[in-house]
Amino acid sequence: MSGLRWDLFCQVIDNFGDIGVCWRLAAQLGARGHAVRLWTDDASALAWMAPGGAPGVQVLPWPAQPPGDGPGDVVVEAFGCEIAPAFIASIADAARARARKPVWINLEYLSAEGYVERCHQLPSPLGTGPGAGLTRWFFYPGFTPRTGGLLREPDLAARHGAFDRGAWRARHGIAPQALAVSLFCYEPPALAELVRQLGAAQHVHLLATPGRAAAALRAVLDRDLPEIGLKPSLGKRGQLSVSYLPACPQPAFDEMLWACDLNFVRGEDSLVRALWAGQPFVWHIYPQHDDAHHAKLHAFLDWLQAPASLRRAHLAWNGLAPPAALPALQPATLQEWRACTLAARNRLIQQADLLTQLLGFAQQKS
Ligand SMILES: Cc1cn([C@H]2C[C@H](O)[C@@H](COP(=O)(O)OP(=O)(O)O[C@H]3O[C@@H](C)[C@H](O)[C@@H](O)[C@H]3O)O2)c(=O)[nH]c1=O
User: Measured in angstroms, how far is the CA atom of residue 92 from the centroid of ligand 1?
Assistant: First the structure.
């Protein structure tokens, strides 16, 4: 299906995942010949995440009024954001006037929990208000064939295959024998434990992403671990090399995950990218006040078929077990984690990607 007009709505709660996922979706729609209006209340992160924009994608401020030409063929509210009643009324008008009714979709957060399969593609008919008579459809990303799948560009494997890992590492000053570890996290309780471990090993290069991860690392190094000598070069026992990276565009962020031997990722989008990268990873899940993220983390680890040491690492990293539960990062352990990631990636590659499924769904419901 090509040439549809899409309105994609994104409210940024905090961090970068809301806009990060919406941008990937918008850019992929644009690449497949669709026209996208990405409406957001905070486009600031796109300045570094997508500085060049993308063909077919227009980024617009959150609308006070619906656009003069009415809604697109497909309207997507990402992550339960609520569009204005006036826009909903314009969907209702278009549904009456047009031969092809707009399809209204609520794109949900990613989870491996069982409710996702049960709720994926369920309708939510509106009985009252400006949208009375309309149906909004729930679309759930997920890890299994009975969900909406994950975002995966058609050329991702080819780009990954053509990636020059050695050149990337040399450009970033990583010694050939070093264990390169990327750090994208919130404030993990076991960060000091990780840094202590890495500082006691030989040839480790830690790459800290900007923002909360870099701040958390700096705090740990200043407060808890002043004894760890940080040197710009590797080679001496007990020395840890640290690079503080600048914010980079999404494709460069992906390359960092491909280049490292172990990735610490967080939230939603970088978790998916870590799976595609095929390297060992540890996920810092977005914490929720009611601890709902505990069940979500366990469901993901079950789906991942995480070996015991990887499960322990996740529990320690997310504060569900004491920091000392973080396993030693021996080569055999990392090898086991890599095998687990690759097996998971193989399972996922058999399934249709999110955009293909979303296009099919929109076609079916229009
Ligand atoms: C550090 C960095 C990140 N990124 C991108 C990668 C991702 O698209 C995005 C980060 O998003 P995530 O990995 O999802 O992590 P996050 O923690 O930033 O986002 C989170 O925000 C919360 C509000 C949501 O509820 C969470 O589910 C989650 O999405 O930033 C870059 O492109 N360049 C960079 O240099």
Answer: 34
